[in-house]
Please model this.
Amino acid sequence: SACSSRLVFSQVHPMWQEPLAIPGGDRQSPIDIVVRKSVFDPQLRPLKVQYEPRTCQQIWNNGYSFLVEYDDTTDKSTLKGGPLEDQFRLCQFHFHWGENNAWGSEHSIDRRLYPAELHLVHWNSDKYSLFEEAVIEENGLAVIAVFLKIGKRHEGLQKLVDALPAVRHKDSVVEFTKFDAACLLPENIDDYWTYAGSLTTPPLTEAVTWIVMKRHIEVSHDQLAVFRSLLFTSAEEQVQRSMVNNFRVQQAVKGRTVRSSFT
Ligand SMILES: COc1ccc([C@H]2OC(=S)NC2=O)c(OC)c1
Ligand SMILES: [Zn+2]
Model:
């Protein structure tokens, strides 16, 4: 699918140092969400998530995370409502996680970090015809963020966990079909925060309407351990590096307002 588009990142592996100052970066992500400063917006509507499991295609280790990629050539898996004026198409989801359970998420709530964070990535198919077009437009993308907490085993995630050893190295791909991404959403998706932000790895474009779920999902310690068994490095490289701590440092809010859909 296009959305995992082979946008050429800076070849220097960011390893999450800040490789470059973003010219005029005044809406960068991730951020710490200060709950008492968020503003309830009664005009925020319920989210409408309609995912078609048959659009799931493959898992790709891109050397930053592993992406579960969807066929985004038609409007079969869509997101609308909430803060969104247009219809958005699901193109991939991926995660960010730590080397241990003390940290790993990109966003935090009142400074509380989670061991991992899921990003469900959608692009505005009312206004653009390709992910690559949308990724440089300020209303181009919508990313749903869901925090992961260590607890009971997540049955729906296990099918994905079982496929990960096949994509251990950077640039490996494995077929992965009929996965319902909706199983990774918390029961209640009506409670969320939303703010204007950016991609969290290069190209860091300020194209993202963030929808950060208030409710987390639970995964088992062993399931998250399999994420940490992945590698940043390709099979040919002499030195193998574990894929952990693939999150960006938090960015200045710079006067942005974070709205909440709940009081
Ligand atoms: C080329 O497409 C990209 C590139 C980077 C990101 C990063 O930005 C966020 S958000 N998470 C990431 O890993 C992306 O995710 C939507 C999509
Ligand atoms: Zn991400």
